[in-house]
Amino acid sequence: MSKKWREILTREKILGVVCMVIGLVIITVAALFLKSGEVATFIDEKIGTLFAPPSQATLYALGTLCFFVGGWQLYRGFRSTGVVLGAVGFLMVASFLIALTSGKQLNLPGLLQTTLTSATPLTLGALSGVFCERAGVVNIAIEGMMLFGAFAAIAASSLSGNHWIGMLAAILTSGIIAVLHAVLSITYKVDQIISGTVINILAAGATRYLKLRLLSPAGLNSPGPIANMRIPVLVDLPIVGKFFDNNPTVFIMLVLVVVVTFVIFYTPWGLRTRSVGEHPRAADTVGVDVIRMRYVNVIIGGLIAGIGGSYFSLGLGQFEDNMTHGQGFIALAAMIFGNWTPVGSFLAALLFGFADAVQGKMQSVLRVGLPPEFLQMAPYILTMIVLAGVIGRAIPPAADGKPYEKQ
Amino acid sequence: MRKWMFVTMVMLLVVSLLTGCPKPATPTEAPTAAPTTAPAKKFRVGMVSDVGGIDDRSFNENTWKGVQDAIEKLGIEGKFLESQAQADYETNITEFAEQGYDLIITVGFLLGDATAKMAKQYPDTKFAIVDYAYDPPIPNVQGIIFNVDEAAFPVGYLAAAMADKVDPADPKVGYVAGMQIPPVEQFIVAYEAGVKYYNEKYGKNVQFMGVYVGDFEAPDQGKVQGNSLIDEGVDVIMGVGGKTGNGGLAAAKERGKLGVGVDVDQYYTLPNEKGILITSTMKRLDNAVFGVIKNALEGNFGGGGVYVGTLENGGVGLAPFHDMEDQVPDNIKADLEQIQKDIIAGKIDTGWPPK
Which residue of B has its CA nearest to A360? Predict the structure, then answer.
C-alpha cells in the first residue's frame, strides 16, 4: 500500500500540490485582509514612487499564476523542479511584500540593499565552510576564526592607520587559527567538532582578554569605520546606484562567490579537493596527497573567514566582545542550506538577510502587529525542513568529518 | 583496559570535585586565627555583570564606576564577575555568596530570576539589583530602578525638534533598540510621547518609528537596521540598548544624520560618533549604586525596598548638547527646561507605564 502511494506521490507531484495550495492561500489572504481600493507604494529615496500596484488585484493575479504553475507541475511536470521552486518562491515573496505594504509605502531598493549587506558575513562564513567541508574537514570554528579576524582587523588598522592593512591582518590571523584547526583535526585526528568548539571558546576568551588588557588601555580600539567603496559611473545610476556605494567587503564577497565556484567545480585543484572529501582512499590511490590537500583547503577557508571577521569590526570602527554573535553558526546553516555549493550558500544567505531586512521594515514603516520573532525564525525553520529532506535534500561530502588514516 | 581508565577518570573527577568545592563556612574552622590577623574585616561588594562586558561603555561599566567610587571614597573592597552567557548568572552570584561577600549587586533586568532565587538561597547576604523591583519585595534585596521615561520624554521632544529643523518637509525620528524588555520599552514609549508632545505643541507631523533587533550584542545588525531606517527617511537615530544601539549610531554618522545616546553621556564613550550626538538620556547608575553601598555600609541597607532614580533627585537626566550646543534652537532649550519642571511637578504624562 505505502509503496504504491510512494509511486503516485513523487516529490514532483507533492511540489505541484504545494504550489497550488500556496496559490489558494495567496488568493484567500487577498480576499480576507486587503481592501480593494488600496495600493502598495514602492519608493526610492531619490526618485520617489517606483511603482504602486493595486494590492488586492495584484495578489489575485499572482495567486492564480501560482495555482496554475502548481497545476501544470502536477499534470505534466516542468523539466526542472528548481525552476518551479524558484518561480513559486518569487511569487510568494512578491505577494508577501505587496500584502504587507498595502496602504503604506516601502523603500524597495533600500530593502534589497539591507538584504545584501546582512548576507555578506554569512556568505563569507559559508564560503569558508565550503572549502573546509568539501575537503572533508568539518569546520564549526568559523565563528571563532571570524572573531579573531575582527579583533586583528581593528588592532592592525589602529597601528597602521590603514583599514586595508587591518583586513590583511584579519585574513592572516584567521589563517593561523585555521592552521591550529588543521593540526588538531588532520594530524592529531582530534574529533573535528571538539577542535572547532575549542577554537570558538578560545576566541571568545582570548579576544576579550586582549581587548581589555591591550587594545583598550593603549587606545587602539577606535580606528573608525572603513570608508565605503564607490564604483565610478555605476554609482550614478538611478535606483540600483546605491548598491555600488557599499562596504568594500560586500564587493569582495561577490567576487569570491564567483571565484570559489570556479575553483571548486572547474579546476583540477577543485576536483582533487572534492575527491578528498568524498573518498579519500580512492584519491590517495591515484596519487593525491590527502593530508596536504586537507591542510591547504582548511587554511584557505580560514583566510576567507578572516575577511568575514573584518566585516564586523571595520564596519563599526571598533572591536566589541563577541561581536560575531553567532553569525558563524548561521553561516554554517547557510552552507548546509546551499548544499555545500558557493552559489547555493550565497542564495541561502540572501534569504536569511532578506528575513532580517523584512522584519526590520515590519517593525518600522510597515507596522505589522505580528511579533518580529516569527519572521526571524523563518530561515531556520526552512533550514530544518531542508535538513529533514522535505523540500530538497542536503547531501554532505561523504567523508566530511572523518579523519583520514593512511594504510 | 578502557573500562579501568574510565573508572579511574570518574574517581579522579569525584575527588577533584570534592576537594575543589568552596569550603562551607562552618564556625569550627580556625576560629582563633582569624580575628587576630584581620582586625577590621573590610566590607566586600561583588558585582555580577550582564552579558556585554564590564567595559560596555554603557550600563555595566557605569555600575562598576559606582562600585569603584565606593572603593575609593568608602574604603570597601569590590570585585566583579562577568557573565558571558545567561547561564552564568547563577554561577557568578553563587561564587560571591559562597565567598561570604556582604553585598552582591546584579546588573540588569535579565538577572531578575537568578537574583531572586539566589537571594532566597542565601538569606543572610545582602543583594541589590539594577533595573528590577520585586513584587512582592524580597527582604534581603534592594531594587534599583530609574524613571528613565522622565528623561526620555524631553529627549524625544528634542529629537523631534531637531528632525523638524534639518528636514522640515518630512521629519522622522527612529530608534535602534536591543531586546524588547520593559527597561528598553520604557525609553521607547517615552521617546514617542515626547515626539507627540512636540507635534501637538507646534502643529507638526514628526513621525516616530524603529526596530528592536532582539540582541544587545549585535552592532553589525544595529548598523544594518539603522541604515534601513535612514532609507525610509529617518533624520535622527536613537540608539537604545548596548552595542546594538551603538551600531545604529554608526549608521547615522556614516549617512550624515543625527543621533541620541543612551544610559551614559555617550559623547565620551563613542569617539567615532560623538560629533553627531544631540544628547544622551542618562541613567546615573554610578550615583545610585554608590548610594546603595554607602547605606549598606552604614547599616541602613534598604533591603525589601526600592531606590528610584528620578529627574528630581538627579538619578536620570539629559547629557549636555556638546558639539550641538549652537544647533539646538533657543526656544527648544527653553521648552526643555519647562518640560522637565512640568514632569517633576507631575503635570506631564510621559506615557510610562502604558495604560
Answer: B211
Residue B112 neighbours by CB under 8 Å, 6+ apart:
B129, B132, B134
State the ipTM, two decimals.
0.90
Q: What is the bridge-based pairing of β-strands B277-283 and B316-318?
A: antiparallel
Whether B98 maps to a domain, the answer reads: no
Lowest mean pLDDT among A372-376, B180-184, B196-200, B346-350: A372-376
Q: Evaluate whether residue B137 is within a structural domain.
A: no
Query: How far is C-alpha B173 from the chain's CA centre?
Result: 23
CATH for A119-387 (1.10.8, 1.10.287, 1.10.3470, 2.120.10):
1.10.3470
Q: What residues make up the domain containing B224?
A: 148-282+317-344
The answer to whether residue B86 neighbours chain A at the CB level (below 8 Å) is: no
Suggest the residue from A365, A370, A377 to mutate for an interface test with chain B (most B CBs closer than 10 A): A365
- Cell (9 digits) for A118: 546582512
pLDDT of residue A236: 87
Q: What is the DSSP string of A212-261?
A: IIIITTTT-S---PPPPEE-TTGGGSTTGGGGGEE-HHHHHHHHHHHHHH
Nearest to B193 by CA among B226, B136, B246, B149: B149
A365 contacts B209? CB cut-off 8 A: yes
pTM for this prediction: 0.87
> So where are chain A's domains?
2-103, 119-387
Distances in Å between the alpha carbon of A67 and those of A17, A54, A362? 9, 20, 27
Contacts of A110 in chain B (CB under 8 A): 227-228, 231-232
* Alpha carbon of A85: minimum distance to chain B alpha carbons (Å): 29
Find the residue in B nearest to A227 (Cα).
B254
C-alpha cell at A198: 575549542
User: What is the residue type of B342?
Assistant: D
Cβ of B224 within 8 Å of Cβ of A114? The answer is: yes
The H-or-E segment that residue A109 falls in is helix A108-134
Out of B51, B54, B211, the one facing A360 most closely (by C-beta) is B211
Would the pLDDT of B203 be above 70? yes
What's B157's domain CATH number? 3.40.50.2300
Q: E-strand spans in A127-228?
A: none
Number of domains comprising chain B: 1
The answer to whether residue B131 is domain-embedded is no
DSSP character string of B180-246: --HHHHHHHHHHHHHHHHHHHHHT---EEEEEE-S-SS-HHHHHHHHHHHHHTT--EEEEESHHHHH
CA distance A163 to A225: 8
